């Protein structure tokens, strides 16, 4: 099976995480599933919601082909992509691809063991609004097709919640209800 991994903080998971996953399956030939893989903690940016809250919210994005993987969150330590990928590639039954947005490409050299990482797994780069793709590192491939682009981000959603502004349409209704019920991001 060919599995694309969309990793990150998912703080909170939003509609664009879903549409990124969907577009990967629609535009990258042979992708069978997309796994949403939340970090326990992130090496570069703080995370507000607990791993358990983010995992609960990610369940609402699951479909038959979009699935949640807790391989990183279950480690209860800072998530380094290279460690996760080393674990994944031991699985000879599946072939894995790592999904990144075009906003991440310029900072890839900051990732732990980034040169080793680019030899271990192919990267699929999904274009993001305001982040044109000018050049790609070795083993990075631009996702081509009639793609929708967005600037929706978890940061934007957290800021809107904090300011008491609506987030309807930016997250699934179940995620919005969960955020309200747990009083997250206030």
From TrEMBL:
<dbReference type="InterPro" id="IPR004821">
    <property type="entry name" value="Cyt_trans-like"/>
</dbReference>
<keyword id="KW-0662">Pyridine nucleotide biosynthesis</keyword>
<dbReference type="InterPro" id="IPR005248">
    <property type="entry name" value="NadD/NMNAT"/>
</dbReference>
<protein>
    <recommendedName>
        <fullName>Probable nicotinate-nucleotide adenylyltransferase</fullName>
        <ecNumber>2.7.7.18</ecNumber>
    </recommendedName>
</protein>
<comment type="function">
    <text>Catalyzes the reversible adenylation of nicotinate mononucleotide (NaMN) to nicotinic acid adenine dinucleotide (NaAD).</text>
</comment>
<keyword id="KW-0548">Nucleotidyltransferase</keyword>
<comment type="similarity">
    <text>Belongs to the NadD family.</text>
</comment>
<keyword id="KW-0547">Nucleotide-binding</keyword>
<dbReference type="GO" id="GO:0004515">
    <property type="term" value="F:nicotinate-nucleotide adenylyltransferase activity"/>
</dbReference>
<dbReference type="GO" id="GO:0005524">
    <property type="term" value="F:ATP binding"/>
</dbReference>
<dbReference type="InterPro" id="IPR014729">
    <property type="entry name" value="Rossmann-like_a/b/a_fold"/>
</dbReference>
<keyword id="KW-0067">ATP-binding</keyword>
<keyword id="KW-0808">Transferase</keyword>
<dbReference type="Pfam" id="PF01467">
    <property type="entry name" value="CTP_transf_like"/>
</dbReference>
<dbReference type="GO" id="GO:0009435">
    <property type="term" value="P:NAD+ biosynthetic process"/>
</dbReference>
<keyword id="KW-0520">NAD</keyword>
<comment type="pathway">
    <text>Cofactor biosynthesis; NAD(+) biosynthesis; deamido-NAD(+) from nicotinate D-ribonucleotide: step 1/1.</text>
</comment>
<feature type="domain" description="Cytidyltransferase-like">
    <location>
        <begin position="5"/>
        <end position="160"/>
    </location>
</feature>
């Amino acid at each position: 099976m060919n599995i694309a991994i969309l990793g990150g903080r998912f703080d909170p998971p939003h509609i664009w995480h879903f549409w990124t996953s969907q577009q990967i399956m629609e535009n990258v030939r042979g992708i069978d599933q997309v796994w949403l893989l939340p970090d326990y903690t992130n090496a570069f940016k703080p995370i507000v919601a607990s791993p358990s809250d983010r995992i609960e919210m990610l369940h609402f994005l699951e479909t038959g082909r979009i699935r949640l993987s807790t391989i990183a969150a279950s480690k209860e330590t800072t998530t380094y992509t290279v460690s996760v990928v080393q674990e994944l590639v031991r699985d000879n039954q599946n072939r894995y691809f790592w999904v990144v947005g075009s906003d991440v490409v310029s900072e890839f050299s900051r990732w732990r063991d980034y040169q080793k990482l680019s030899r271990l797994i192919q990267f699929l780069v999904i274009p993001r609004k305001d982040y044109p793709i000018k050049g790609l590192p070795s083993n990075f491939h631009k996702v081509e097709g009639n793609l929708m682009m967005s600037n929706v981000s978890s940061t934007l959603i957290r800021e809107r919640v904090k300011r008491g502004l609506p987030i309807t349409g930016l997250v699934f209704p179940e995620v919005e209800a969960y955020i309200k019920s747990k009083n997250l991001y206030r």
